Amino acid sequence: MKSVLFVCTGNTCRSPMAEGLLKAALPKGSDVHVSSAGVAAMPGQSASRETAVILKKKGAALDRFKSRQLDATILEQTDLVIALSSSHADMVKRSAPEFAQQVNLLTDFIDPEEGLQGVDVPDPFGMNSDAYEEVAEVIELAIPGILSAVEKL
C-alpha cells in the first residue's frame, strides 16, 4: 500500500482538508492510504468546523478524524510527505533528515502555469469561511499533480 501524509501546524485546518480532498479524488478501491499530522498539533482534536463544512460541500467528509502530532513512526510509514508551507517542510527535514527526500511542498504539485509553485498555503485558522474556501481551491489545484506522483510511487 502507498501512503501520503499531509503536514501543517495544528492538524485541524489545512492538512485535514487536503487529506479529505485527496481521499475523495482517489478511485474506489485505491491502494493509497492518506492521512495528516501537525508539527505542533494537540492530539485528539477534531477538524475545524470550517474545514468540515467545506469538505462536506465537496463530498469529502473525514470520518472520525482526530488531530495527531507528527513523529518518526508516522514518517516511517509514509511514502510521500506533502507540507502545506515551506516552514513545515523545513521542520520535517531538520527533525528527521532521513526522510528529507520524501518531503514536498503542496504547491509544487500545481501546474506551473498557475504561478503558485513554491508558494505557502496560508493558514486560515481563526479567519472567515472565504479564507478556508481559498485554501480548498489551492489544494484542489494540486490534486492532479499529487495523483500523478502517487502513481509513480
UniProtKB/TrEMBL annotation:
The active site is at C8 (nucleophile), R14, D123 (proton donor). Residues 2-149 form the Phosphotyrosine protein phosphatase I domain. Keywords: Hydrolase, Protein phosphatase. Its EC number is 3.1.3.48. It catalyses: O-phospho-L-tyrosyl-[protein] + H2O = L-tyrosyl-[protein] + phosphate. The keyword Protease does not apply. The keyword Hydrolase applies. It is an enzyme of class 3 (hydrolase). CDD domains: LMWPAP (cd16344). GO terms for molecular function: protein tyrosine phosphatase activity. Belongs to the low molecular weight phosphotyrosine protein phosphatase family. This is protein-tyrosine-phosphatase. It comes from Oceaniferula flava.
